[in-house]
Task: structure prediction
Amino acid sequence: MSAAISSEPVNGMAISLKDVGAAAAHWHPVLDSAALRDAPQAVQLMDHALVLWRDAQGQLHAWADRCPHRGARLSLGRVCDGQLECAYHGWRFADSGRCVHVPAVPEFVPPAGHSAQVFAAQEAYGLVWVRLVEGPHSLPLFAAESDAGLRKVHCGPYDVATSSPRIVENFLDMAHFGFVHAGWLGERGRSAIADYTVQATATGLLATNCWAWQPQSHVHATQGTMVEYRYEVTAPYAAVLTKVPQPETAAAAAWRESIAIFICPVTAERSRVWFRLAVVDFDSPDSALQAFQNTIFTQDQPVLESQSPRRLPLDPRAEVHTVADKASAAYRRFLQGAEITYGTC
Result:
């Protein structure tokens, strides 16, 4: 995996891969697409300060949030005539990143080296995604996005004081349902986890035949039921779960839902989290579905932020395990094999 990572300069300025490693070649979410309008926006990805902005055609751009002239933050500037203008000396940069105008020396033609550092960016699932270096990886797959029979609802962001791998591992864990989510996704007296199947995939893992008793499996659940889960890790900091309750307990015929979690590693120990819901419910307001998801995740958050160390330990001897942790163990092995060191220890 590390062989696919390049530390070549982008527009003349090399970025440091120290403490970032193989994760730099993956796509990461950094902002809600709807939040990026006329003004530039500052974001942070893996300790890198970035500026996002749209040109006159609405095209997305992601650059280092640093003017090459005197290091001022470009996010303090403004977009003028489809170019990004630095707030300090008014230098203007074209969408290529190259400076095209220096007000103090109007006749000066800036050379190629007078350029902002440019990163690859794209939009999907209602989010802006950025990649710090070139790599072979595609965006995390959320197959339900293309299913017209499922309604899509956006949830988040949530700012969480822990590493992105800790959050993914919690997303894969069913054994905490009866304690952290008692009365919702589990009950203390019915917390046993039956054996399930885990297999490695190119993007992480696939866990199937996962069953859990849930008093309130979704916003419209009419009674407690056994729910079948399917988990897939789709990138180092992204995963999807699909859940299907027993038919007689669902409010809608053929009820099913998929939930994707997309995580931005802001730093090695701070993360920003979004959820993307795909459900058969086309009647409830977004707020009702978002409120349910908010309840569940805000139950998780204090536990996540209490875990020590915040970075996920990959040494099998660092924390103890049981057979119920098979998905977690497989995820840790995937991170090791993929040489994902950011957010781990």
Notes: DSSP finds four helices and 17 strands in the chain.
